[in-house]
Fold this protein.
Amino acid sequence: MKRAVDLVMAVPGLILAAPLIALAAVAIKLDSRGSVFYRGSRVGRDGHEFRIVKLRSMVAGAENAGSAVTSAGDPRITRVGRFLRRTKLDEVPQLWNVIRGDMSLVGPRPEHPEYVRLYTPEQRRVLSVRPGITSSTSLTFHDEERILAEHGGASAYVDVMLPRKLALDLQYVEHHSVGGDVRILGQTFVFAVSRWFGHPSPPRQGGAPGTGSARPGAGGGSSPSKKDG
C-alpha cells in the first residue's frame, strides 16, 4: 500500500515540478560552474547504498573541501543554493529516487555512509524501511544548519543531533502507518509553502537538540544538511 501511494503521488508530482526544476537549473548554471544536480551516496533500506538526487546548492568540488555536513554560513553554499535550501526546492528531484524505489515519500532521512557506520545494532533498525524525502524528524529538526553552527558543526551532529534524530526515527519505524504518512506529508506541504514567506516553527514531534553528548554508539536510542556539491 505504501509503495502504491508513493508512485501515485511521486509520478505526477515530478511531472508538475519539472518546470520549476528547469528554472532552478538555469539559475544554478548562471550562478556557479558545475553540474545542475548533485548525486551523493546514501544508505537505504537493508543497508544498500544508492545515489540521492538533489539540485546542487554548493560549489563544485565541495565534497573535497570540508565536512560531510553543513552548518549555517558555510562558505561552500552558493547564492542560489541558499534560496534552494531555505525553500527546500533542492529536495524536489528526490521524487525520482521515490519512483526508482530507492526512497519513499515519508521515512527516516537517508544518511551518509560514514555516519551509518557509527550506528548501534538498535539504531540500524531504521534501515528496515525505505528512507524518505520527509519525516516527522526532519520537521522537528528543520533548523538544523543553525543548530549545528551554534553547537560546533560536524562534531555536534555526531555527539548531539544524530542520536536524537535516530531515536525519533525508531519511533516512526515502530508506529508508521499510511494515515500517519499522509499527516506528515500535509505538515510538510504547509511548512514548505510557508518557507517562502517566513521562518515557521513546525510542531515538534519529539526531543529537540540539546547540549548532551551521546554518540551514536552510546545511548541515542534524517536533513545534518549533507553537502551536495
